[in-house]
């Protein structure tokens, strides 16, 4: 069985970390990841929610909203990672997905670092 | 991270919201600050035992209020309120409070807190100092170090600023739409001032001033989280992230300023750049350009360019053209001319800056740029005169050294 581990924390706190503290945390996490690298899939650290955009696809046409997905009635069902030159390209991909699967929303959040399965950035 | 560190981080993260609520509650900065300090002391005592509360801001607000009321009652010799043990164990009272504590509900409070710090009667240095003390919670000694003044002098400056604000009577009712937009613009300008104060041209000061840049980023993100659909706040956040991303490349091993064209781009902070670029993309979708967005777009083109030579100068030229129309200024035109020299040639650039001579005659960059254009056109003698003038006007030895390097490249 494969498991996705989703990380939650108060970003006001994590953004208040000093650079040194942030690096120390990442180094410790890196060591744990390294230990389990045989079994580990890709790992992503995301940029702050202020950099996010949300596509509401429960209406026609889908609506683009600034900011993260903030509803609590809906649950996280899955995610995609795609390499795009611009936000517009990422939104086009999300719209294309939404057209064949309306309802709910996509949060489009830029990725900070993406580690491959071997734990390397 | 030891215990005091994690508590410090949690308090720092909760501070703007808590101080904003307390300012509304007490109607006075000093009272709000005193009550908050008291609550922080109690947090240092209670949190290691009970663990951090679910909502640190809510906890701090309630304990502060309690402490504030407590001290008022003590002064008037009335019976003190029950101790804050009641709320420090996360009772139901907190849950009800938390409901009302979502950021959106506190948007105008936080905006007001930021806004009182940039009252137009305050000179810009006092605005910055006050925001760093009140909103960010930096220690007076840290702020003093960043401004290169003594702690006592800074303490006095902050006290003076606070008393000026107390007399200014900023209204406490919710602002209307127009007033909110005006406040937002004033606060954005103050945040950019904080950043620029930290963005030093001197390596010796970089360590002391770096916290200012980091606080500016935090304040800007805070403002953006409250006003997520404001393209200019996206632009401002992007602009300071993209500029700060270059900080590790801005000085060489000897502490000499390294110009953009010579910077080692592998030292640029990729995370800040990614965030800045994402925000520029977000802002562009709104098609409501403003000066922060345009400046951020220029910074984004530099960030995207693999090297100085491969920079999209034509695009930078047109962005500065837009900025010139938005806020006409000889310095903007001079910046545009530098891009024009790269995209359309030095002759056109030289033509463009000729009318600026009167206004920028005492400006180092004007003569430096003019000398570079003349040098490119092979007019060595005139270039030498311009360069000499630039050296006479240089603000730092590094600037002068850069011009001397150019002179060395002139044909004999």
Residue windows where pLDDT falls under 50 for at least 5 positions of chain A: none
> How many strands in all of chain A?
5
Mean pLDDT of chain B: 88
pLDDT under 50 segments of chain B (min length 5)?
85-101
Give the gist of this structure.
The complex is a heterodimer of chains A (121) and B (412). Chain A is of the alpha+beta class.
Account of the 3D structure:
The complex is a heterodimer of chains A (121) and B (412). Chain A is 31% helix and 17% strand. Chain A has 121 residues and is an alpha+beta fold. Chain A has one domain: 2-Layer Sandwich (Alpha-Beta Plaits). In chain A, the strands form two sheets. Chain A has a three-stranded antiparallel beta sheet with strand order 3-2-4, with helices on one face. A two-stranded antiparallel sheet of chain A has the order 1-5. In chain A, a hairpin with a 6-residue loop joins strand 2 and strand 3. Chain A is globular and about 45 Å long. Chain A starts with 10 loop residues before the first helix and ends in a 6-residue tail after the last strand. The model of chain A has no long low-confidence stretch (mean pLDDT 92). Chain B has 412 residues and is mainly alpha-helical. Among the domains of chain B are: 99 residues, no CATH class; 105 residues, no CATH class. In chain B, 71% of the residues lie in helices and 0% in strands. In chain B, helix 2 crosses helix 3 and helix 6 packs across helix 10. The longest helix of chain B is centred in the first third of the chain and has 24 residues. About 4% of the residues of chain B have low confidence. Classes of the chains: A alpha+beta (121), B mainly alpha (412). Chains A and B meet through helix 1, strand 3 and strand 5 of A and helix 1, helix 11 and helix 13 of B.
């Amino acid at each position: 069985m494969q498991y996705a581990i989703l990380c939650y924390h108060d970003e006001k706190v994590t953004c208040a970390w000093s650079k040194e503290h942030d690096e120390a945390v990442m180094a410790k996490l890196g060591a744990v990841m390294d230990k389990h690298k045989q079994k580990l899939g890709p790992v992503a650290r995301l940029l702050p929610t202020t950099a996010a955009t949300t596509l509401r696809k429960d209406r026609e046409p889908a609506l683009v909203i600034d900011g993260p997905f903030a509803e609590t009635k809906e649950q996280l069902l899955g995610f995609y990672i795609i390499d795009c030159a611009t936000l517009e390209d990422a939104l086009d991909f999300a719209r294309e997905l939404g057209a064949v699967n309306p309802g709910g929303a996509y949060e489009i959040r830029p990725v900070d670092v993406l580690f491959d399965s071997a734990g390397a950035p | 991270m030891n215990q005091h560190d994690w508590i410090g981080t949690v308090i720092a993260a909760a501070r703007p919201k808590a101080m904003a609520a307390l300012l509304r509650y007490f109607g006075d900065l000093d009272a709000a600050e005193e009550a908050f300090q008291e609550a922080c002391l109690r947090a240092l005592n209670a949190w290691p035992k009970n663990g951090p509360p679910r909502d640190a801001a809510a906890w701090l607000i309630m304990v502060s209020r309690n402490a504030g009321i407590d001290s008022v009652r003590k002064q008037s010799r009335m019976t003190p309120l029950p101790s804050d043990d009641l709320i420090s164990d996360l009772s139901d009272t907190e849950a009800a409070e938390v409901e009302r504590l979502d950021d959106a509900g506190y948007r105008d409070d936080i905006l007001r807190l930021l806004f009182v710090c940039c009252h137009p009667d305050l000179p810009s240095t006092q605005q910055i100092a006050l925001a760093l003390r009140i909103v960010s919670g930096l220690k007076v000694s840290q702020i003093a170090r960043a401004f290169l003044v003594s702690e006592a002098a800074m303490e006095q400056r902050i006290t003076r600023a606070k008393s000026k604000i107390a007399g200014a009577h900023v209204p406490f009712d919710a602002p209307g739409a127009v007033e909110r937009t005006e406040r937002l613009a004033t606060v954005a300008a103050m945040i950019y001032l904080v950043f620029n104060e930290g963005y030093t041209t001197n390596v010796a000061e970089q360590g002391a001033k770096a916290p200012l840049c980091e606080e500016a980023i935090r304040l800007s993100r805070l403002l953006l989280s409250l006003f997520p659909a404001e393209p200019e706040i996206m632009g401002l956040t992007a602009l300071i992230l993209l500029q700060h991303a270059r900080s590790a490349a801005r000085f060489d091993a000897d502490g000499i300023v390294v110009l953009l064209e010579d910077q080692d781009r592998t030292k640029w902070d990729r995370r800040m750049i990614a965030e800045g670029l994402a925000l520029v993309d977000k802002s562009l979708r709104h098609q409501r350009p403003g000066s922060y967005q345009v400046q951020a777009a220029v910074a984004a083109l530099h960030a995207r360019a693999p090297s100085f030579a491969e920079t999209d100068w034509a695009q930078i030229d047109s962005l500065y053209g837009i900025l010139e129309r938005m806020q006409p200024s000889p310095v903007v035109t001079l910046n545009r001319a530098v891009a024009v020299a790269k995209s359309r040639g030095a002759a056109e650039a030289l033509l463009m800056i000729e009318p600026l001579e009167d206004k920028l005659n005492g400006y180092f960059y004007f003569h430096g740029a003019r000398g570079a254009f003349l040098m490119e056109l092979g007019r060595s003698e005139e270039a030498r005169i311009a360069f000499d003038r630039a050296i006479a006007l240089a603000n730092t030895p590094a600037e002068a050294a850069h011009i001397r390097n150019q002179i060395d490249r002139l044909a004999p």
